[in-house]
Structure formats: structure tokens, C-alpha cells
Amino acid sequence: MIKRPVSAFVQAILLIGLTALVVQVANILALATTPTPNLAQMSLRQAAAILAEPDLAEALDIPVAIQSQPPAGRRDETLEAIWAQRIDVDVAQVRIVFISDTRVELVQHRNADHDFSVPLTYEGLPQIDTIPAESIITLENTPLPYMLASYQRPEGDWLVMGEQPSFWSDWRLRLTLIFLTTLVVLTPLAWFAANLTAKPLRELAGQVQATQSRDLSRRARVQGTTEILAVAQAIDDLRDRLDAQLADRERIVAAMAHDLRTPLTGLRLRAEQAPPAARQRMVEDIERMEAMIADVIDYSHSRQPRQAERVDIGELARSCVDEAALSGVARFDGELAVMWVQGDPMKLRRAIANLISNAQKYGGEALVSVHATGDRLKVQVEDNGPGIPEADIDRLMEPFQRGEASRNRSTGGSGLGLTVARDVALYHGGALVLANRAEGGLRAILDLPLYRTDG
């Protein structure tokens, strides 16, 4: 991790320069350790000497091989005729081929009567009877590259002299090994360079996740280039503005909810004096409005930070079930085990109570269970109601959103119960998950991080 801020441009220049330096060092090592490719130069006189004395091949560093067929390549019949005369065999028993199409310039031979300078090309040399004897002697003694001289032995096989082409020759193997070594050396360097750039970005992405949990007090503490630090500062500024806007909105909503209670109190007093036929209807409407106002106040308080403490979520859920059982059907399923979370007990109680209340309203009963899986703790509330259309699940967790089935006098609410539960889950680093049960009804899961202790 970079200790001091460095511009991304400067960092890129340094990394590219370091990479270029490593590559250049590898190239220098390749040039210093790789031998010059052997051109396998051999003269006809040397080939004839090897035929007469095979041990000379090793001394002259000329490979010799025996094979069933003559070598393939571009033949030169003039050189074949010259060599056949030197070793005193029939021209059909020799073969001179060139394994490369490279143009070969012969040395210039001069004497008083003839100036001989003939390039060996695809067409080969002139006919032997047009070449002076002095030039033939020159040809016999001139080492020619890429040439293979072969002689058919009495046994029928061919004795081939000269280096035959091989793709994986010694020098190419060495170069390949050096290139692979360079790749192995550069790979961790490239990984380090990429990680050096990506790690601050990953840390910054993790810090941004705090915004989704509505914990806007956290700061983006990352180290990296000046550009990354500038982005982190911009995110912090944005969090501050969002925090201020949310606080202003919640203060306005809470103030309006409190102010509405005053006229509701007056309406309740007047309702007591209304005729009996209308009194009950008026009181029910006022109670519904008071419940909705209480939900709005709870929502405005759901994101206010409080001192976190260790909470036994199993005992808390059991307490919520006991309270809910006084006004409806609510049961706790499973054994009561001690399972801790770190957070605000009031907020957690409100979230669980809201899920139980929703299950009682829309499903007739609430079945609550608590269990831990790995490092996660799940508070599960199930009902036997109609469930929620899949397309509406995400929408119903937003503020003031209600399903069509809840828009009646008996079950209608403020549309904040699930929102409060979701915000409490996010506040504690968790999530609220809603899913329809296969056997019917809705399953709401409050997924929270498990707090482990030695006790």
C-alpha cells in the first residue's frame, strides 16, 4: 500500500519504466548467453575428406547421419558432378542439396585468363563444362552454408553430411527458456502493479457500501493515489449532504406527526360527544390515524445512531412474541438458544415487532424462529396469508408503499412497517429478505451478523 499520495500518472510511469527495465535486462541476458546460430558451412573437399576418414567429422564439427532416403532440398547438379568426380563415383550416387533458399555469393576467383564470380541462386551454377578448372578448384574449397552432401553407400542407404534443419535448435531453446523465465518474473510484478492500483479501489468500494446501510457517519479511510483520495473525499462530502438532507426530512416528518396529534386529541374528545351510531366509527378512524402517526415517528427514529450493545436476539424475539400474543396469534418455534448481536435493542425490537405485526394482519398468525448459520443470525417470521406478488416485494419495502390487499379499514397501515425493519437491518450490517413460501404465505427473514463471544 502506498504510504504517501502519488499521482496515478506518475505511478503508471514508474511501473512502466520498471517493466521496461526488466525486459531490457532479459534481452541483454539473452544476447549475452545465446550462441550465434551455426550456419553449418561445409566445402566439397571437407565432405570428401570425411568420406575417406569419418573421424574428421567430429574435428570439423560437421554432423553425419545415415538414412534410408537422400535429403530433400534444392539440388545443384553442377556441384553434384564436381563432387562425384572428386570422390570417383557415379553422379547418381551423390546428392548435393541446399536446405535454405538464401542467396549464397561465392568468393571471387581471378587469374590471368578468367574472372569467375557466379552467385549460387535457385538456378544453381552454370554447366560444369563451362567452368574453368581453376574455378572448379575454388568451388571445391569454398565453404558453402545450408549445404547437405550425401553419398549412397553400397548397402543402399545414404550417408548425409551437414547440419539438417531443426526448429528446436540449441539457440532457439535457450531463447525460449529465457522468454519463459522473463514471463515468470514479470507475472508477479504485473500482479503486484495491478493489485497496487485495484486494492485502494476495492477498499473504497467497501466504504461506499456503508452508504447503503445508511450509516453516513463513517468516513472513507483509504490510501492510494491523489485521484483515489479525491474520490474518497467527494464520497465523504456526498455522505454529509445526504445525511443533512435525511435529517431535515425526518425532522419535518416527525414535527408534522407530533403536530397532528394535537387536533386528533380534539377530535377524540368531540367523538365522545357524537351520537352512538357514529361514535365508534369516528374512534376507529382516529385510532388508525394515531397508529399511522406512531409509525411515522418510529421511522424518523429508525436511523438515529445509538450506543451499540450486546443483545440476546433469541430472548428479544421471544419477548416480542409474548407481547404480540396478547393481541393475536403468535408462536415461537424451536428451542430458545443464546445468540448475540451487536446493536441497538430498541431498533431490533421494533423491527421484529413490525414483522410479527404484519404476519398477524395479513396471515392470521406469526410463527417466529431464530437460528444461526456460520457467522450470520436469522430471525424468521412466517405466516399463512396470501403472500406478496414477486414483482411487488422490493417495492413494498420502500416508504409509504402498500399492497392492494392492505388498502382496507381492517388491515390498512402507513406502509412503513417493512421499511423500518429493512432500515434497522441495514443499520446493523444485515438485510431484510422477503420470500413467498411454497406451501403458501410469506417468509420474512431478518439477516444479521452474529456476534461471537468466548462465553
Please describe what this structure looks like:
This protein is of the alpha+beta class and 455 residues long. Among the domains are: 44-168, no CATH class; 306-449, Histidine kinase-like ATPase, C-terminal domain (Heat Shock Protein 90, 2-Layer Sandwich). It has helices spanning 8-33, 44-52, 56-60, 77-87, 133-141, 170-212, 226-272, 276-301, 313-324, 345-363, 417-427, and strands at 64-67, 74-75, 94-98, 104-105, 109-110, 115-116, 119-120, 147-152, 158-161, 309-312, 329-332, 340-343, 365-373, 376-382, 431-436, 442-449. Helix 1 packs antiparallel against helix 6 and helix 9 packs across helix 10. The longest helix is centred in the middle third of the chain and has 47 residues, at 226-272. The radius of gyration is 46 Å and the shape is rod-shaped. The two termini are 37 Å apart.
List the helices and strands and how they pair.
Blueprint: H1 8-33, H2 44-52, H3 56-60, E1 64-67, E2 74-75, H4 77-87, E3 94-98, E4 104-105, E5 109-110, E6 115-116, E7 119-120, H5 133-141, E8 147-152, E9 158-161, H6 170-212, H7 226-272, H8 276-301, E10 309-312, H9 313-324, E11 329-332, E12 340-343, H10 345-363, E13 365-373, E14 376-382, H11 417-427, E15 431-436, E16 442-449
